[in-house]
Specification:
Length: 654
């Protein structure tokens, strides 16, 4: 420890690599100044010192070199030498030539060596690639290096008598923060982390800098002044901005991706919900149609009994209710299907005339209900029952939105719009406008979602507008909604103009025509099969009941030859109606009439799309089935006759 703290400058040098292996503090201070004066590695590149070091290594004796420039005497003495080689470890002892000490030399006393040291350090600081500055313990800037002056003022040297030149160069928004950081560092005696600020260059452009500072202490540890560096970080700042912009872009893309995922999940959930509702609606409609069918047949059977004349008025009421229930069931079945049933050309004026009274009753006496029909209306193509139910649904929604009091307008007008394929098309618009509470903008897109309702939980199921939209879209139409909270709502249905003329001829209801023949009746529902069996027997037909496609196919393959087959479409069992059709077509080609309580989409799924076989949708009347049977048997007989070819005549000899 004493050797290290000695005032005598001592070092151990490798004579081959000329690297300093060990030195005490006194030597380090002296050698540092010597390097500054020389501007190079003195042991490697100073010829006189290199020669003296090599001489000591090769001779094995002490070699002395006196250097006037540094006012120093160098004594090189070999310490270790490998036998037979010139390689050795050399001790270097440095002492002053005159009475001056190394301390006075380092402190800049009036000697040529001290002046050289100071000049060397100044060159280093001036050439430093960053701004270097000195300030007093009061914070007054009194020196800046050449790099700083060129950046700030455009010239190597600049004299500021007032010592305020940097204040005008700091960005006004950063001046307070920089002053606080400077004051805090001086108060605490150190600067924990650099501070960022903007500094204006000599062309007037601001650059981002980062400054840090440290005190220069005397022997007692008291700050003499402070030295600071300001590093230009404009490129770093711009890179940070670019990185932040990129991160923001990625965040937005991530949010957009998350929004798309959430929207996809919502749409998927919506589709699952729609599939559930569709399946439920189709099943309920099928069972309801079967019940209505049985009830309708029994009403017809009772009406045919002479002893029931007194009950005829009551039976007619039941028959009317049955038809209304059948209409609702048809709508429910259609909700699960792809296409409306019984679409036809309709006169808008006649349709409104038929339903206007019903709409007025639906909205109530305290609602001012008006109808506005614009000129130029063309026939539209849609299912009348579906359209009437859609308008009733909109009217009830309008009434509820007005809490039973207000104004409702039904506007019917010709309109031109772009269709789903982007082509201009003509439509008939049915618009229902109310003066109700209105719907918020963020909810307007959801009003057509299943089970979504703006009404109280006890006033709406959330399926009404869904069924309306399903009907309109299945009719190749469009539906829009426009609502303003506190003002009211307008819902418009756009239905396509008909390409076929309106049929004004009212066909009389088909009568019951007795017949004869054997009918294979395939129906899995016991009550429906029993009712159908009864009505067919009364029409004069012999029936062979069957409860599934499997059973019917077995009967046919066993040799049974009915004149006609009446079959349900979907029944339990291994075989389907398509298997039944294949067996029939491979055999006698017996005509088939399909009777179903399902909607048209089930008929499509079962492959009955080529109109080769008649399809009756339950509930239907005895007169309807009678007419269909007569038609099917007549067509079959005609086809059989057409299939018998007349024999060709042999040519006569000439």
């Amino acid at each position: 420890m004493a050797f290290r703290d000695s005032a005598t400058a001592v070092a151990v040098v490798d004579s081959v690599s000329r690297n300093i292996l060990f030195s005490n503090d006194a030597f380090l201070r002296f050698f540092k100044d010597l390097q500054v004066i020389a501007g190079r590695n003195v042991f490697s590149e100073e010829p006189a010192l290199a020669t003296a070091l090599a001489g000591a290594a090769t001779s094995g004796a002490m070699v002395v070199h006196e250097d006037g420039a540094s006012n120093a005497r160098f004594e090189f003495s070999p310490l270790l030498m490998a036998e037979g080689t010139s390689h050795s470890i050399v001790q270097c002892l440095v002492s002053p030539l005159s009475g001056h000490s190394f301390e006075s030399l380092a402190e800049g006393m009036a000697t040529s060596a001290a002046a050289a040291v100071n000049e060397g350090y100044r060159r280093i600081l001036d050439s430093f690639p960053h701004n270097v500055w000195l300030c007093t313990v009061k914070g007054e800037l009194f020196w800046t290096n050449r790099t700083s002056n060129i950046f700030t003022y455009g010239k190597p040297e600049f004299q500021d008598a007032d010592n305020t030149r940097y204040i005008a160069k700091v960005h006004p928004e950063d001046l307070t923060g920089a002053g606080v950081a400077l004051s805090k560092a001086m108060r605490e005696g150190r600067m924990e982390q650099p501070h960022r600020y903007r500094l204006r260059d000599h062309t007037g452009i601001y650059h981002w800098f980062q400054f840090s500072m440290a005190p220069v202490l005397d022997g007692d540890g008291t700050p003499l002044y402070w030295v600071g560096t300001s590093v230009n970080i404009q490129a770093v700042y711009e890179a940070e901005l670019a990185a932040a912009a990129r991160m923001e872009q990625l965040r937005q893309r991530s949010e957009a991706h998350e929004d798309r995922v959430l929207e996809s999940q919502r749409v998927l959930a919506q589709q699952h919900k729609m599939e559930l509702v569709s399946h439920l609606a189709g099943g309920v409609a099928h069972d309801l149609n079967n019940l209505l069918h049985v009830m309708g047949i029994n009403i017809e059977l009772m009406q045919a009994q002479p002893q029931c004349d007194g009950l005829l008025p009551h039976l007619r009421i039941l028959d009317g209710c049955l038809k209304k229930a059948g209409r609702l069931s048809t709508q429910l079945a259609g909700f699960s299907g792809r296409l409306p049933q019984n679409a036809m050309a309709l006169e808008p004026q006649a349709l409104v005339d038929d339903i206007q009274e019903l709409l007025a009753k639906a909205v109530g006496a305290e609602v001012s209900f008006k109808v506005q029909i614009e000129p130029g209306l063309l026939p539209l193509f849609a299912d009348k029952s579906y359209l009437e139910n859609a308008l009733i649904n909109l009217a009830i929604n309008a009434r509820d939105a007005m809490d039973g009091r207000g104004t409702m307008l039904l506007r019917v007008a010709p309109r031109s719009r772009v269709d789903q394929d982007g082509h201009p098309a003509d439509y008939v618009m049915f618009e229902v406008e109310d003066s109700g509470t209105g719907i918020a903008l963020d909810l307007q897109e959801r009003v057509f979602d299943p089970f979504f309702s703006t009404k109280a939980s006890d006033k709406g199921s959330g399926l009404g507008l869904t069924m309306v939209k399903t009907f309109v879209e299945n009719s190749n139409g469009q539906v829009t909604i426009d609502s303003t909270p506190g003002v009211g709502t307008r819902v418009a249905l756009y239905l396509p103009v008909s390409r076929v003329p309106v049929d004004h001829v009212l066909e009389p209801s088909p009568g019951i025509v007795p017949g004869a023949g054997r009918i294979l009746l395939v129906e899995d529902d016991d009550s429906v099969r029993e009712a159908m069996n009864t009505i067919l027997n009364q029409l004069g037909y012999d029936t062979i009941p069957s409860f599934s496609s499997d059973h019917a196919v077995t009967l046919l393959q066993s040799g049974m030859k009915p004149d006609l087959i009446i079959s349900d479409i979907r029944m339990p069992g291994r075989l389907t109606v398509q298997d039944l059709i294949n067996v029939v077509e491979a055999g006698s080609g017996t005509p088939i009439i399909f009777a179903t309580g399902y909607s048209a989409d089930v008929v499509i799924k079962e492959g009955l799309v080529n109109d080769k076989y008649q399809v009756l949708f339950k509930p239907f009347s005895a007169a309807e089935i009678s007419a269909r049977i007569q038609a099917a048997l007549g067509q079959h007989l005609q086809a059989a006759n057409d299939g018998v070819a007349e024999p060709e005549q042999a040519p006569q000899a000439g």
